[in-house]
UniProtKB/TrEMBL annotation:
The chain crosses the membrane at residues 71-89, 139-161, 168-189, 201-220. This is Vacuolar iron transporter. Its main location: membrane. It comes from Citrus sinensis (Sweet orange). InterPro entries: Ccc1_fam (IPR008217). Keywords: Ion transport, Iron, Iron transport, Membrane, Transmembrane, Transmembrane helix, Transport, Vacuole. Belongs to the CCC1 family.
Length: 226
């Protein structure tokens, strides 16, 4: 009777260990891998930040030599359209190149396994891997939209301000607030330090606007008039 009891206790203990291991694995599996967000988060934050900084800097540069509100708004709108188109085309080409490289690598791996006579389910695996690759059209649309969202902020912020100096201050202030917001959103979505992310985005935007304003002002006062 001792042997069956010992066997029963051992089986029960192994069953409990198996359940515990499975529960732990499920908990680990349920934890979200924030690295999966890296690609689309980078594209979204980069696009919105690029749109904001590019258009705000462009408007600041034009405002350095022109007091007319129409000149600033037209320059900003042109920057929005051109930048969104450039981002969309650039992202489309980039993702297409990435897909071509990865698909070519899959084919090389498949050929190596066929040559070495390895047993595998390569066709199904390759199809799944190919379906998991990013879509170029979706990436292009997302980049264009993200750029437009960022670019429209300084345009709307300064559209109804008539005084030239106040308009420049409003563009700088609105852009600064939006930069902080983008930095915070990026940090929250990616679970990264908020202060560090926001400060990096804000300082970079300030530098771009200041350099554009300063150089345009220098060229304008040097004799080149618009």
């Amino acid at each position: 009777m001792a042997a069956p009891r010992a066997l029963e206790q051992t089986s029960s203990h192994n069953l409990e260990m198996t359940i515990h291991v499975n529960d732990t694995a499920e908990k680990i599996g349920d934890e979200f891998d924030y690295a999966q967000r890296a690609q689309w988060l980078r594209a979204a934050v980069l696009g919105a930040n690029d749109g904001l900084v590019s258009v705000a800097s462009l408007m600041m540069g034009v405002g350095a030599v022109k007091t007319d509100i129409k000149a600033m708004l037209l320059a900003g709108f042109a920057g929005l359209v051109a930048g969104a188109g450039s981002m969309a085309i650039g992202e489309f080409v980039s993702v297409c190149t990435q897909r071509d490289i990865e698909i070519a690598q899959m084919k090389r791996d498949q050929q190596k396994k066929i040559t070495s006579n390895e047993n595998h389910e390569e066709p199904d695996e390759n199809i799944q891997r190919e379906e998991a690759l990013p879509n170029p059209a979706q990436a292009a649309i997302a980049s264009a939209l993200a750029f437009s969202v960022g670019a429209v902020v300084p345009l709307l912020g300064s559209a109804f301000v008539r005084d030239h100096k106040v308009r420049l201050a409003v563009v700088a202030a609105v852009a600064s607030i939006a930069l902080v917001v983008f930095g915070v959103l990026g940090a929250l979505l990616g679970k990264t330090p908020i202060v560090k992310s926001s400060a990096r985005v804000l300082v970079g935007g300030w530098m771009a606007m200041a350099i554009t304003f300063g150089l345009t002002k220098l060229i304008g006062t040097g004799g080149l008039q618009m």
